[in-house]
Amino acid sequence: MVFEGLADKLQQTFKKLRGRGKLTESDVSEALREVRMALLEADVNFKVAKDFVARVKERAVGQEVIASLTPAQHVIKIVYEELTQLMGGTQSRITISSRPPTVVMLVGLQGAGKTTTAGKLAHLLKKQNKRPLLVAADIYRPAAIKQLQVLGEKLELPVFTLGDKENPVRIAQKAIEYALSHARDIVIIDTAGRLHINEQLMDELKAIKNTVKPHEILLVVDAMTGQDAVTVAETFNEQLGIDGVILTKLDGDARGGAALSVRAVTGRPIKYVGMGEKLDALEPFYPDRMASRILG
Ligand code: GDP
Hints:
Layout: H1 4-19, H2 25-41, H3 46-60, H4 63-67, H5 71-86, E1 102-107, H6 114-127, E2 132-137, H7 144-155, E3 159-160, H8 168-181, E4 186-191, H9 199-212, E5 216-222, H10 227-239, E6 244-248, H11 257-266, E7 270-274, E8 282-284, H12 287-295
Parallel strand pairs: 1-4, 1-5, 2-3, 2-4, 5-6, 6-7
Antiparallel strand pairs: 7-8
Residues 108, 110-116, 193, 248-249, 251-252, 274-277, 281 line the site of guanosine-5'-diphosphate (GDP).
Protein name: Signal recognition particle protein
GO molecular function: 7S RNA binding; GTP binding; GTPase activity
GO cellular component, one term: signal recognition particle
């Protein structure tokens, strides 16, 4: 389970702290040193971990905490609040345009889970009484179009494709025309990925963006890749501009660093998390619930 290591370490640290009763400033400092170590071991970005602990410390060594009746509880509460803030504070939803169709463009590297996530997102939105259209704009990965069509069949949702000979910009454009004439209110575009970020990929994504002007560009990243996921998010945000992140494979044994660092490093929130391979395994991301899970 994600965050298992981090949760264990923090629980041990706070158990020791509780056992102390009254706290001195050095007790708090010692505990926060352990918190910092635990964050780094969970693959949290170095600067993010350092700043996090500094913020907690500033609040926790105040008179109020040291003098309170349950000082350890106070420190834990501050850590909980700061963890929640670190992950964006409140849940970030996707923008639904008042003039349909809402256009959502999914971007990301190959294998991150983009195509699967397109299906999951369509499923989630269908359950909210929306009428999604899936768009196969990944013309390079041979199986991508077929994969999306299979998902569409399972979900009983239309999949727009022009095969793999048309260029992705035109596919996206035509898909929006199709959505307008068939009363589909959300267009989910599955774009091509690459193994690594390169200029050709970015140019293609920029061309789609500039032509169809999506309401949401969501970057799909694999939580198992830890700090790499954060670097990928930073690069996509700088070069393309993203509105949010979907973090996949959080059901695996990812250490959780990406979930904790993405927002602070990129300024963009995590909007959904992938919790499995099945179509119903996509959940909105709630920073407060995630913080509770970490603190046990
Ligand atoms: P794409 O190349 O980005 O389109 O990636 P795919 O959608 O083909 O996904 C790559 C692999 O990751 C597939 O085997 C998916 O089933 C798997 N996958 C995607 N999301 C999740 C997730 O949230 N959890 C798990 N365990 N596997 C996932």
